[in-house]
Amino acid sequence: MKWFPSFGFQRRKRELQEEIDAHLQMAIADRVARGETAETARQAAAREFGNILLVQDVTRDMWGQAWLEQLGRDVRYALRQLRKSPGFTITATAMLAVAICANSTVFSWIDGTMLRPIPGARDTGDLVSLQRGNGTSLRLRPSPISTIAICASRTTPSPEYSHITTTGSH
Question: What is the per-residue pLDDT across 136-165, written as a single tens digit (0 to 9) for each?
């Protein structure tokens, strides 16, 4: 069963071989017509034509699809090797899955925390951190009402909110 279609490679190889054979047959027939024996004519025609395998390789390179054919051969070889060692295949696949998941997680975290700005904060100088209590006491989050009042004033908190400290510039 073929896993990959040949994309016409086999047909083109066959046509190239037929063309080379036709050239050789014409050269042999021409030499036989000049009076040489069939065997001598075949040897002389082959010598005159040159290295047939080299001509085939150069012609395939000129087609510009040699890299695709080589890629197909490499993939088939890799699949054969993976089929021969299922333990390695399972281990390698699991490690790739873990690595891809870790990479995706890290890049998502970096994108969400460092690359994209916080919605609603165009100027980072406007960001403040609100904490209840002084620097040494237990820090609790201020109530939503206190937060709204401080944000609405946009200045130093009024005396009723003096227990709330802000860090950062505003």
Answer: 555 556 566 666 666 666 555 555 555 555
